[in-house]
Design goal:
Chain lengths: 411, 411
Amino acid sequence: MIAEVLSTGDEVLLGDITDTNSSFLCRRLKEAGIAVGGITAVGDDVNVISHAIETIAARADICLVTGGLGPTRDDLTAEACAEASGAPLERNDVALASMTAYFEKRGWGKNLSRVNEKQAWLPKGAGVLENHNGTAPGFDITIGNCRFFFMPGVPSEMRLMFTGQVKPRLLELTGETGEITVERLMVFGLPESVVGEKLEGFYTRFPEFSLGFRARFPMIEVKLVARQEDGPDINAAKDWVSEQLGRKVISSRGLTLAQETGRLLTEAGQTLSVAESCTGGLIASLITDVAGASEYFLFSATTYANSAKMNILKVSRKTLEDNGAVHELTAQEMAEGARKAGGSDWAVSTTGIAGPTGGTGEKPVGTVCIGVAGPDGASARRFVLDTGDRGRNKLLFAATALEMLRRQLVK
Amino acid sequence: MIAEVLSTGDEVLLGDITDTNSSFLCRRLKEAGIAVGGITAVGDDVNVISHAIETIAARADICLVTGGLGPTRDDLTAEACAEASGAPLERNDVALASMTAYFEKRGWGKNLSRVNEKQAWLPKGAGVLENHNGTAPGFDITIGNCRFFFMPGVPSEMRLMFTGQVKPRLLELTGETGEITVERLMVFGLPESVVGEKLEGFYTRFPEFSLGFRARFPMIEVKLVARQEDGPDINAAKDWVSEQLGRKVISSRGLTLAQETGRLLTEAGQTLSVAESCTGGLIASLITDVAGASEYFLFSATTYANSAKMNILKVSRKTLEDNGAVHELTAQEMAEGARKAGGSDWAVSTTGIAGPTGGTGEKPVGTVCIGVAGPDGASARRFVLDTGDRGRNKLLFAATALEMLRRQLVK
């Protein structure tokens, strides 16, 4: 069974937005065990859309279409489908009822304007897909040997409609239960090509599972999917992956570094403070992105200026004068100072050079010193990690700091 | 003149990556004044790629292709092009020389493995496009009435090759100089639909310019492009846009809030400290993303726990007990405390509820109090801004805080 994905709408062709709808649908199709033959994006032109529908109908079994279901003049997808299928547009009372119910739910009254009523005119014979998150009902229709599903272009509406309305219908077509088991491992410290090499043996050992990688810089998410209910145990596959990647697996539950560190601190009933310089608040931001961080996260100081390092974190003037802001000793004193100022069990610190300026021969761009202070004392290490991009350097420094903390927490 | 964009490679069809190459190329084509007829993505299959090339050759004037130029077995684009064009693959000495030079530059020696040498086998008659950032040379070739440009799939390599090699050749085709004038305005506080409505009159008033919007949540970037050298002055168009949007334009140079705030502080020779709670370090992170922030940014405290608000920022216990952490008075004391602790001219603070939990009837999710402290005193305001998503709420809180500071700085 082969599926294709079709995006309709000028905004993708103008480069104003990137086609995240199509990549979402491709991932879902992959999870449903359906191969994707191609993705096409066309503009708001009835003839072009109609031609694309006809062409795909002649070669695919399934087609997922997004966009062009709105109330304006540029929304031409239903009309294009009518042209391609030969099934004329007619007012669909199920669609109309669905839209009216949505309007009432939003408090807009029962009176659909003529502009909105257009959205209930669907090709004869189409089945309605309810939209619980917007005004445009979707629809499905068979053209030739291809089953088409038409969804709105607004990502949140499309995703909800796919999950609630399209996915069950797809599973009827494939005969699968749709029960899938997904295991995720989060990996840090290896490039994707090396992860791929280390896991090359997977496909022959575990043919019943599918393996995928997604870059979530600076992590790599390794995803295992099992689609058979009575197939082999996915944990054997997961354990094998863990073995191949060793210490680079920071979470076998697919948690991010911030989530995993938070989990370990919560389990231990311990608290954390952070002292940042070059990462500029990013570590604190990543930690507090995790709901429930208030259980363990007390305080972070971003001490950009040396005066702040001394005043807030009590880094000694001598340390700064002798070694400079970017030094293991400075990082260690920052961590100790944050731990004390916050009154926490643990503290981690960063001080370094994210670039593009500020590097020297002795301390090039990418130099970062990371300190960890805990119940048993404090230590610090220096790294040189330059990706060539300031923002990515900050992310990499932050991740390295959290990893250094995590390794202390799992001891 | 109509162009199409073709992506080759399984990873897009698997949904592992989103097709940012195509959206980049669409934006560049738009800037070059070339309309895009469609985008297609196909997998690593010689026949499918060849068929796509043939189909596009029959209907477009220009085609930009990415992917499939690497050294592995899955890299089939050159072969597919040979099939579609009828021009057989042959060893291209210009390509070989270009690759050898790149290998030497990287210190890999002159000895190309047989695997890499495959990358110098191009269709007979193809012109070489040098790759200064990777091993795969690109190439261009005419098939029928369509000029094809083949580029690598790695985004950084593709962008460099496009800018340095493809764009000049496109301009030869269109006869334009490629001189474009681009003006950007950054807008905050209006949804895109309202911005669109307010600027509806643009197209009739300024037909020589193109107007585009890009969502950069929570900002909207309005972009004006003029392609004619001797056309009307773009500043008249820019001024008109500014007038329609009024106070919502935070920068008429397209600077982000963090950049604009930094610019104003640098101009005034003033410094800034920040006190954050619910934004968790995000404000500091946004400020320090701007190179040169060390000129004005001294210090940020993320005081997640009330103990930290008292110990570090000297917020009074009474204020916290009487009003709670999320209150105008707390925000004001946080700002005053950060200003004092950092020894800066200005300070801004946030305390609120980003969600999804933590809201109450009186203080629902989205409640945020923002304080600003400066040479003339301190003040604070309360807002309720809920996007339904924790991460987006944090971004919106941070932007609102920087905007409140910016308005003080421009007085």
